[in-house]
Amino acid sequence: MLDGADRRAMTIAAFFRDSRVQSVLAGSRPAQATSIIRDFFSRYNYDDCAVPELLTLSDLASRCGDSEVAGTALRRVIAKGQNVHLAYYRLGRLAIAAKDFASAAEHFLAGTAADPLFAHNWMGAARALHALGRKPEAANCAERFVAFGVRPHAGSELAVLADLGDYMFDSGDRKRSRSLYETVIKLGAGRARDVVRLAEGNIAGGDYASAIGLLEGLHREGRLDKWGRRALAACYSHSGDHARAIETAEAVALGDPTDAGFVNTYLDVLARSKDLERMRLALEHHAALFDANAVGELGGRLKLAAGDVAGVVASLGPLEFVYRSRLYYLCFETAYAALAGGEHETALMLGERLAALAPDDNFVKLLRIDIYFRQQMWEPAGELLDSITADEADMPHLVLKRFEYACFVGDIPRAEALRARLEEMELPSKQFMLPVFRYLAERKSWNELVDRALVWLDTQLDYAQIGYVLFRAAKHTGRQKEMIKPDLIRLRANLAFDRAETLADLERLASDPTIAKDAVLARKIEVKRDVLTQSMALEGRRAIFLCTDRNYLAATIVALHSVVTLMDRREVDYFVVVDNELLERTRRFVAPFCDAGYTVTVVPAAEVVGLADKLYADYGLFTSGHVLASAAYYRIYFAKYLARRGLYGRAIYIDSDVLVRGSLEALFEADLGGRPMSARVEPMRPEVRRAIALHQLTDNRYFNSGVLLFDLKHERLVQSLDGAVAAILDDQTTLLFHDQCALNLGFRADFTDLDRVWNYTMGESMKVQDLPEDVRILHFLDRPKPWSAAYGGEAAILWFDAWRQTAAFVGETTAVELFGLVQE
Description:
- The protein is mainly alpha-helical.
- Helix 35 links the parallel strand 1 (542-548) and strand 2.
- The chain starts with a helix and ends with a helix.
- The strands form 2 sheets. The chain has a 7-stranded mixed beta sheet, sandwiched between helices. A 3-stranded mixed beta sheet has the order 5-10-9.
């Protein structure tokens, strides 16, 4: 005991250094701890105690059984505002020891408010609330605790977690119960029943593989009871292993034929198998297991599996069934089967029969709403939706129907709000995302659709329901490779076939046994491979391509004519990439070229440009109100398209505002010096300097993109083109000269210089007689263009002479129609 003199002289720090206190701290003299601590608290100003000292005192008092002193120290910690969460946790533990569970719950919950990241206050709150019988709150706290992945401080707390898992499971929250069972099992306190219940929670969450792993493990150990075998049968059934599912379920049902639950599992397994022969055998050999309604149900399911909706309706007709019976649910399934088969009147009749049994059942209302949707009867569908009470309106199924209704009637703001609500909810099925996918497709939000689909895709995908939408999304975004999942055979095959542009791609597809089983796909692959093989057998093929829109279409045809007349028609393929709305018109305009033996293909831009919605058209300089056509970007995408096809060695791109004055054979043969591309370097004009500075490019290495020679086999070409595409799609990149800057950013001086004779800039003030004799391609780079009424230069003579020659080739009527498309 400390005497008076010691008390007057001793500081707080000295108290902890005193040998008598040290012996108590060391645990050698615990009997004296209470009197020493109380004496200290009665003599000193406790406000001078630091938080670590108060926590040590509380711990010492707790070890000595003095909860009063421990509590005093902890309350002083709270008053100081430091380590508050820890003080509340220790106060809660003191209250638990005193079996004052109400105070304990109060302390632990205050600790969670002070620091939500301190896991053990959540466990303490779960334990105290559980003892008070407040299980819903206790379960919420337990979920928060197990999310931290830490071990409880007391073994008794594992029993609390197991009991709360049972509470969730028995309340119907099987998916939520999983995290609690997983923790209990992981920490070695799980019973066989907990493992089975965890498996059933996984089944409720659609994770059949994990459930099978858990149940088969118990089965090997001989610890799987009949309830577990019933769950295992359901797992096998859902995962498609119908033979084992039926064998397992039948054994359980035969073992206890009076248990309706076991018999119903057997019925479910049979129905899911859609194996008509097995279902018939079940009716013949195991009729003793079923009552009259069960016999009627299985007979009805036999007909439903065979697609005989009318037969099911006839079977259901004389049977009396009650709300939520198995026959009631068969009636539901038949109504939806009728709806899927276009038998709307039958579906409506069955819906009305269900409504007579359960007029207030929201799922019956949802069925009828679906029928009205299919018949485009928006008014009665809206009335049914309005009849649903406010407290039920937040059910996921109902939110989904309100979302679909908003989409159908065109209320986009409402649809967006409901979509956001849907995505906040825990959806009972992935099928809920199908209307969202269709909505995103209608809104042309292709990338968002792919992002969500990649998370959503699994083996339960029904291609007939949504596969084509996913296919289109992959095409629009160019993300086919991401969406090719090995176990989604039809989607994988269609995407892979669409992407297959080389013989190697097609050979890989043809050797895939799952794809080879599909006769249609196998034939498509065979034909495409044969055609590609023949194309590649034509040695020396080259490609020349142009890209255009409405305003430049006349100039494009003139430029095309100027080049084809100077080339050997047997060795060059020509491509014209156009806006989609010009497709049929352009095919008509190039028909004379094809009739004359030239290979000219018109390519819709949508086939080669995945993200055409972000092709900026405004110039970055003062240009008298002119804008750049989006078609200017197409050259980048089409060059990549040609490279991927692998059919050509080299390709030349030419702008529409050029005239070709000599054969391009020598250009095809030009030495690229190991580079993927050749282009003419721009003189260092002020605007060029500005572009170089803006994009941090190399001086004197900024090229003009009006004439480009590509080595389509070069290993760096696609990478460089991808760099150009990335620049186009980057919101942070300001492209001063748009497609030209994008190309310069993509190649970054990785090109060889093109002699100016292949891209000779013809200004308005230049004289025709001053043109060098060796010029092969004239480029009317500046505005106005020579076909414009505002153009006054001599070069207009050259262009109009070329137009007259083109008109003679395509026909004067076509030429006049073409020229009529030109706008200033």
